[in-house]
Design goal:
Elements: H1 2-17, E1 32-38, H2 42-57, E2 61-67, E3 80-82, H3 96-103, E4 108-112, H4 118-126, E5 132-135, E6 146-148, H5 155-167
Helix pairs in contact: 1-4, 2-5
Length: 171
């Protein structure tokens, strides 16, 4: 599909041009945290809700954004979400919640996906986040400052690892 090819091209270009100050700050000093993910099923949804609750219990302000693939079910409307229709054929965002999310200078932005997704990568490339954290994948290294190698680890364990490494970051 031509629009997906354009989005992939724009995403690669953004990784070179978008240069907000990226840095690690101690988790204890982090205030704003973003969570971006693909909506895939009720189990993942519940695990992400628990992860966000844990971040909030640590005193963090958390904003989340989910990508809803065609044919997937949105289990509740607690999270802002978008679909591929919210990014037009030339790679421009047409939904305000996406633009707002991209422009927040998160201290940490967690990407909770095990499979690369062009729409989420586009958001990661445009993000103003200081530190982007995600799953280690040979293709995704331009999108993250910290990658967790987890293999086929269950999501709950992956999220625990992301949080553990975040808490061990020093200035």
């Amino acid at each position: 599909m031509l629009s997906k090819t354009i989005i992939q091209y724009k995403t690669k270009s953004l990784t070179k041009r978008n240069s907000p100050i990226r840095r690690f700050i101690p988790y204890a000093k982090a205030e704003r945290i973003g969570v971006v993910f693909c909506i895939e099923g009720l189990d993942k949804h519940q695990t992400i809700k628990e992860f966000i609750r844990q971040l909030e219990m640590d005193g963090k302000s958390v904003k989340s954004l989910g990508y809803l693939p065609k044919g997937a079910e949105n289990h509740e409307f607690r999270f802002d979400f978008f679909t591929e229709k919210d990014v037009n054929a030339i790679g421009q965002v047409t939904k305000e919640t996406i633009t707002e999310f991209i422009n927040i200078p998160f201290d940490y932005l967690y990407c909770i996906d095990s499979t690369p997704n062009i729409y989420i990568n586009y958001i990661l490339a445009r993000s103003k986040a200081k530190c982007r954290i995600g799953l280690h994948d040979g293709e995704n290294h331009p999108y993250f400052e910290l990658m967790i190698k987890a293999g086929r680890t269950p999501l709950k364990i992956l999220l625990d690892e992301m949080l553990r490494y975040s808490k061990n970051l020093n200035e």
